[in-house]
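2.7 Reproducibility. Because tokenized structures are sensitive to small changes in the input, we list the exact sequence used for Methionine ABC transporter ATP-binding protein, including any N-terminal residues retained from the expression construct. No trimming or masking was applied before prediction.
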Amino acid sequence: MISIKDLTKVFKTKDQDVLAVDKLNLSIDKGEIYGVIGYSGAGKSTFIRLLNRLEEPTSGEIELNDQNLTGLSKSKLRVARQEIGMIFQHFNLLWSRTVFDNIAFPLEIAGVPKQKRESRVNELIDLVGLSGRGKSYPSQLSGGQKQRVGIARALANNPKVLLCDEATSALDPETTDSILDLLVDINEKLGLTIVLITHEMHVIRKICHRVAVMESGKVVESGDVLDVFLHPKEKVTKRFVDQVMGDPDRENSLDVINENYRAGEVIQLHFVGENTNQALISDVSRRFAVNVNILHGKITQTQKGAYGTMLVQIDGEETEVKQAIAYMKTTSVEVEVSPDV
Ligand SMILES: Nc1ncnc2c1ncn2[C@@H]1O[C@H](COP(=O)(O)OP(=O)(O)OP(=O)(O)O)[C@@H](O)[C@H]1O
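Resulting structure tokens (single pass, no recycling of outputs):
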């Protein structure tokens, strides 16, 4: 659906050239929610703005449904852009227009006749859960409601792709969740492809099917969200996974654990599925003469199912402990022996 090849953006400033996006390659499937995560300065905003040519690429190609966006003239680009909606961190609404008129704006530009416009806007207002608020002005709305207007406006011309530029970063956690639920809802109802950028792993965890991790303008790691949670390869990815799974007291607790549980081995299990770990622990206790003590654990839900980590102490005769760990490693549960403190 979207194919990005060697996409590069260099900003030329007075003092220096800044390589914001560096030969980035990515392929995004129709109907998926694709998240791009990275710390500040990684190049995420530049990347997403390149996708609809709000920013002109220095080199590389972007294909949307086999149409090369990078080669299009201004007039053809205007038409192609109707396939791509976008929402922003600070909503970018027109403050002097009502909710209804904000949503109608792109339809006016596209030359949709008044009557059709009205029914489409009303449909969109219902879709995003703003029924009865059509006559309100943006200043009379909460942050979450403003973003709902942004979403309705972005969907007005029936785009195939929705780009989300840190769409929930200005919202509190509860409102963030309600906007993320709305994005999943429209992804499922309309089969809309969503590309989002964020610095919050919670957003990736909650709604994305796949994720790419960006650092210094490049994608350093990508894959299915659950896979990335289960096998993060890069240091930066591990830090993002820790945003969701990490316990603020983990370091202290590991110190204490290492002090207090000197016998046997302390291991960390990473697993997919709610019950996988319980099944494994009872299985191991039955098969081997060991005690399994659960020290700490956390399970979180992703779009593709549950992911969890658990810290356990395996205690018993050395050979039994070794055999138990060797057995655990043959299962679908990922085993990390002597996790870092
Ligand atoms: N218009 C510009 N002119 C010059 N340099 C720019 C411009 N826009 C972005 N950059 C630089 O490009 C790099 C990537 O910035 P970008 O805003 O894309 O990162 P980001 O991951 O979105 O970070 P943030 O979340 O802080 O916006 C940074 O070094 C930034 O200073």
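The radius of gyration is 24 Å.
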